[in-house]
Design goal:
Structural class: alpha+beta
Keywords: 4Fe-4S, Iron, Iron-sulfur, Metal-binding
Number of helices: 2
Protein name: YfhL family 4Fe-4S dicluster ferredoxin
Number of strands: 2
Oligomer: single chain
Largest sheet: 2 strands, antiparallel
Distance between the termini: 22 Å
Helix content: 10-25%
Strand order of the largest sheet: 1-2
Radius of gyration: 12 Å
Order of helices and strands: EEHH
Organism: Halomonas dongshanensis
Length: 82
């Protein structure tokens, strides 16, 4: 699954620099995650780094975008090959 940022986001800016895939960016009101670039840090880390640093715990799995570990790894390979 890709991750998502909920409206509990306080725009603290700690998640954006932690994303190794540059999937997090400022949205109109809160930060957003590009599901095409989010691999839940598969290929980089054991756990999603944005979730680790978020002070308000507002970055859950996106139930609309279910992906297996293998699919996330393939996405990682595509992203890092460019």
């Amino acid at each position: 699954m890709s991750l998502m940022i909920t409206d509990e986001c306080i725009n603290c800016d700690v998640c954006e620099p932690e994303c190794p895939n540059d999937a997090i960016s400022p949205g109109e009101e809160i930060y957003i995650i590009d599901p095409a670039r989010c691999t839940e840090c598969v290929g980089h880390y054991d756990e999603p780094q944005c979730q680790q640093v978020c002070p308000v715990d507002c970055i859950p799995l996106d139930p609309e975008r279910q992906e297996t570990h293998d699919q996330l790894m393939e996405k990682y390979r595509i992203i890092t090959a460019a």
